[in-house]
Amino acid sequence: MIKIQKINPLEDKILEELGFSWHTDKDGSKYVNNELVKISQEEAEAYYEAANELYDMYVEAAEHVIENNLFFELGIPFNLIDAIKKSWENDVHWHIYGRFDLAGGLVDGKPIKLIEFNADTPTSLFETALLQWALLKQNNMDENKQFNNVYDAIKENFKRLVTLFDDTKNFDERYDGWKILFSSVEGNDEEEATTRLLQQIATDAGFNTGFEYLHNVRFDKDGIFDADDNQYEYWFKLYPWEDIAHDEPELATILTDIMQNQKAIILNPAYTLLFQSKGMLKILYDLFPDSPYLLKTSFEPLKNTLHVEKTVFGREGANVKIVSSNGSVIEQKDGPYDNYKKVYQEYVEFNKDENGAKYQAGVFFAYEACGLSFRKGGEIMDNMSKFVGHIIV
């Protein structure tokens, strides 16, 4: 069983002052749990090493997909293939941040296993980067007793848009006044707060930044503009690439042209859609069958094996099924993603507390692994799962 430490929660008023408005779920329960997961320094280091190794594996797997034209196997929309290739070819298309979802890794001896990689539009950033510190401070705990360098790591990664693989200390002398426009969909508090946090991090890094709701951004052959016709060299959108491909095909074409003509760079890059696809779990298992972090994954149901059926694109546990070794469905969540291609991943149990609640680890990655937090819920983590911070003891 994992070890839990009860804490005093942050009051709703304090959360709202921090800009965190989605603190209460639709059933009236609190989204941020009044507890911390207790981990050791060794366990924190193991999560760090796992995420770093997994990212290197994803890079190698993406190269394999592109070289062998395996886009269909991953469910990649045809109208984004050119954008993916273009972004992959040039290092200026820099991956700002992502989040690995992992099982295991704690005191019950379960090994760390990859569940999936949220590489394109990961949320839980606000909670992991800021709220965990606030929870420790609220409870008079040492704020440094965390695996949590998310804010500074992302700030340094923004600087790498200019310095690339060079030391980010060279940023000031190489920065040429480039601007980043940040966008999210109007009406979603969590996505807007996450996007505005990233804008603040980029501002702290030294960039000129702006914010514009997605529907107000103007795109044409000359580049990307805000509602006041200011042009930007970079555009960060907290909006999934696959949704652009399916729901906004004209935008997908325009963005590809903008990239080809070098009028703007889009963040996170189009190639992160390869990482985002759960079909990559099968490619990874083919390439690295002996990796201790990977679960057996196939494009066909795993016979005589307890496994999980997932769609290649989908969020918050929607359209996920847990299937028994005889093929019967044990548990499932409905959702809007059922038209996507399916993958089948060997089942692994999440860490549990003494009451049987399950905990999924999330490790953020920004050039390297940089922060840990947890989601608490049932067998399938959905949009009613709770955020849980941690403390190193």
What does this structure look like?
The chain is of the alpha+beta class. The chain folds into two domains: 3-276 and 351-392, no CATH class; 296-346, no CATH class. 32% of the residues lie in helices and 24% in strands. It has helices spanning 12-17, 41-67, 81-89, 125-138, 150-163, 171-174, 189-205, 241-247, 249-260, 272-276, 279-287; strands spanning 3-6, 32-39, 98-103, 113-118, 179-183, 208-211, 218-220, 223-225, 231-232, 234-237, 265-267, 297-298, 307-311, 321-323, 329-332, 342-346, 351-352, 358-365, 369-377, 386-392. Strands 1, 2, 3, 4, 17, 18, 19 and 20 form an eight-stranded mixed sheet that branches. Strands 12-16-13-14-15 form a five-stranded antiparallel sheet, covered by helices on one side. The mean pLDDT is 94.
Task: Please bin the fraction of helical residues.
Answer: 25-40%
Query: Biggest sheet, open or closed, and with what strands and sense?
Result: 8 strands, mixed
- Radius of gyration from the alpha-carbon trace, in angstroms: 21 Å
Shape: globular
What is the mean predicted local confidence, pLDDT? 94
Amino-to-carboxy terminus distance: 16 Å
Residue stretches low in confidence (pLDDT < 50, at least 5 long) are none
Count of the domains:
2
Number of helices: 11
Report the oligomer: single chain
Quote the beta fraction. 15-25%
Structural class label: alpha+beta
User: What's the number of extended β-strand segments?
Assistant: 20
Structure summary:
The chain has 11 helices and 20 strands. By secondary structure, the protein is an alpha+beta fold. It folds into 2 domains: 3-276 and 351-392, no CATH class; 296-346, no CATH class.
